[in-house]
Amino acid sequence: MDLKKRLENVKDRINKAALKCSRDPESIQLVAVSKTISANRVREAIEAGVTILGESYVQEARNKFNVLGTYPVSWHFIGHLQSNKAKYAVRLFDLIHSVDTIKLARELNNQANKINKIQDILIQINISKEPSKSGSDIQNAAHLIKDIVLFENLSVKGLMAIPPFFNNPEKARPYFTVLRNLRDQSQKAFPVIALNELSMGMTGDFEVAIEEGATLVRIGTAIFGERR
Q1: Whole-prediction pTM value?
Q2: For residues 80 and 179, what is the distance between their CA atoms, to the nearest angstrom?
């Protein structure tokens, strides 16, 4: 199956999953995970209809942006971000999904202030409490949001999480439910900000994530095929 057909298939699955739970398919954005994918292949995806690219490595994204920066696509950062890369991240990315410490938030705020930008971010939550995964503890989420909303050059848009990998996507459902509930609780606690976004769900489980409220699904393999 070629890339265009893969993309059409994914979009069709997103639409069906949304309609199944009485959601508007337009309320779900597809983030095409383009990390490790060549610029030429990414260009092919853009020309096939991809509008949001998800990158996990700042230097790799910079290289691609130099080649593809004239295309009208939105660039999202979805990987673990080190504070020393913040100055590059705020120049490249429209949305950073993976803010998980006050240290990183402070540096992003400082760097965004230097270029007179309000940087949109999501707070990453380690919902599975896996040591190998980044993210704030669930218990610390409220404190983190409370501190970050004080930064004038950051705008918190919602939450992001990566559940454990399961062969059966239904096993991921409880983790998506936890993130949605945490978002809802956080929204009540901080009514002055709009926590509309839930970044959750990947190739193996995005339909379940949509049923649980995902607004951003991060899909790579189903679009680009297995990474070599």
Answers
A1: 0.96
A2: 19
Distance CA(7)–CA(184), nearest Å, equals: 31
Per-domain residue ranges of the chain: 3-224
Contact 183, 160 (CB under 8 A): no
| Cβ-contact 110, 119 below 8 angstroms | no
Question: Quick check: 18 and 207 in contact, CB under 8 A?
Answer: no
What value, to the nearest 5°, has the Cα angle with vertex 112 and ends 109 and 36? Answer: 100
How would you write the pLDDT of the chain (228 residues) with one tens digit per residue? Answer: 799 999 999 999 999 999 999 999 999 999 999 999 999 999 999 999 999 999 999 999 999 999 999 999 999 999 999 999 999 999 999 999 999 999 999 999 999 999 999 999 999 999 887 777 888 989 899 999 999 999 999 999 999 999 998 999 999 999 999 999 999 999 999 999 999 999 999 999 999 999 999 999 999 999 998 876
Tell me the three-class secondary structure of 6-69, residue by residue. Answer: HHHHHHHHHHHHHHHCCCCHHHCEEEEECCCCCHHHHHHHHHHCCCEEEECCHHHHHHHHHHHC
Q: Are 78 and 93 in contact (CB under 8 A)?
A: no
Please report, for residues 74, 76, 89, 120, the alpha-carbon distance to residue 109 in angstroms, rounded to integers and kept in the order given: 20, 17, 11, 10
Statement: 3-224 belongs to CATH 1.10.10.10: no
